[in-house]
Amino acid sequence: MGNEPSATPTRPRNRRGEGARLRDDIVAAAVELLDEAGSETAVTLRAVARRVGIAAPSIYRHFPDQPAIMLAVVRQAFDQLEAQLRAALDAAGADPRQRLFAVCRAYLGFSQDHPERYRTMFGGLWVPALQGTTVTAGDVEAVGQASLQLFTETLGACVTAGQAASTDVHADTVALWLGLHGLAHQRAVTVAFPWPPDIADRLIATLAHLKSA
Q1: What number of other Cβ atoms are within 10 A of residue 45's Cβ?
Q2: Going by C-beta distance under 8 Å and a sequence separation of 6 or more, which residues neighbour residue 66?
Q3: pLDDT of 67-105, one tens digit each?
Q4: What are residue 138's phi and psi, to 5 degrees?
Q5: Confidence bin at 2 (pLDDT 50/70/90)
Q6: d(CA 198, CA 195)
Q7: What share of the chain is helix, strand, coil (3-state, %, to 5)?
Q8: Residue 71: CB partners within 8 Å, gap ≥ 6?
Q9: Distance CA 123, CA 130 (A)
């Protein structure tokens, strides 16, 4: 009938050695579904397969279950975040204080530019049960560590340069990230609030224990 959904498009069969391309396409389809729906529930094996144009069982060659697909999506998002943070650091010059502000502002920028992905990374939209899945606690714990390490190294450089008074760089890095995450979340959910224009810099300077310039 005219109102029935169209059949799943058929994807051309990959040539030998092109299996990695299908894996990338599966992850890309999952990201699209997540961005469109704003919820992990939209990322089902059937929906991903339909978007890619393959039969659902073909996914099992690359991902044993749905949480494994979501883990790949979240890892890719953190890779993108890390790349954005590193680009900000590269453009910030050599001054440790300015590099810290740059990496923090880049983090906030990522949260605004990719709200659905950010919510999946940090907002509790993706919390695998770890029972009946191949995803392990170690997999989840490792996600985002490279980005956190960038913050730690950048704050540590401020301390070494005498620009910050932190006596526990790791703990203050976690506090700084929590502050940035809180600001990112509140900006997303209270869009009409008259935020002071320098609120991010005030937050960064306080939580990083920066000394007066």
Answers
A1: 18
A2: 43, 44, 45
A3: 899 899 989 999 999 999 999 999 999 999 999 999 999
A4: -65, -35
A5: very low
A6: 8
A7: 65, 0, 35
A8: 128, 135, 139, 140, 143
A9: 18
What does the block give as tokens for 86?
A: 């590193």
**Is the pLDDT score of 114 beyond 90?**
no
Helices (H) and strands (E) in the chain, counts: 9, 0
pLDDT of residue 5: 42
The dihedrals phi and psi of 74, each to the nearest 5 degrees, come to: -70, -40
Give the span between the Cα atoms of 200 and 196, in whole angstroms: 9
**For the whole prediction, is pTM greater than 0.70?**
yes
| Residue 8 in tokens | 């799943």
113 contacts 67 by C-beta, under 8 angstroms: no
Cα 158 from Cα 152, distance rounded (Å): 10
What does the angle CA 149 – CA 155 – CA 161 come to, to the nearest 5 degrees?
135
Between CA 115 and CA 180, with CA 149 as vertex, the angle to 5 degrees is 40
Helix (H) or strand (E) holding 52: helix 45-52
